[in-house]
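Good morning C.,

I know you're traveling, so I'll keep this short. The sequence:
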Amino acid sequence: MTADADAVEYTRQHWAESGQPAADHFAALAALMRTHQLMVNELDRLLKPHSLSRTAFLLMATLLMSREHTRPLGQLSKHLMVHPTTVTLVIDQLAGRDLVTRRPHPTDRRTVLAALTDEGRRVVTKASEDLATAQFGLTGVNDALAQRVTAVLGQVRTKMGDLD
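The tokens, ready to paste straight into the viewer:
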């Protein structure tokens, strides 16, 4: 593939030729951002029939994987790396559709739990099936490549302090 055919390589080449610093890192940024945008567009398209945003889906998927399908709101914010206000807003929207409920923590009065309802489990499971059919936005990427991407990004995340 030539620089003319690949926007990221074109960007790297012209960034370097114009004397800008760290061309390889700039190209890595461009590659990640383009990949992210391609995935976001596909995920949004696939989640639209379920009337779910990406954040709502990820929040519900987190609850689905959690013990008793519940999680404190504060943990959801940290896990999803979104502002607590965003979690509150999404929980409000999902509760309005009877997909999640709020309930008090059994031993800590200061903590509110979000819990998936039976309908919430049904919706997130169906959305997950649809996303899996489309390879979670990585259309055309086989299992081996998906594993390599995960491993490489794990190395990057470690260098950036996300993993210990």
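Safe travels,
E.
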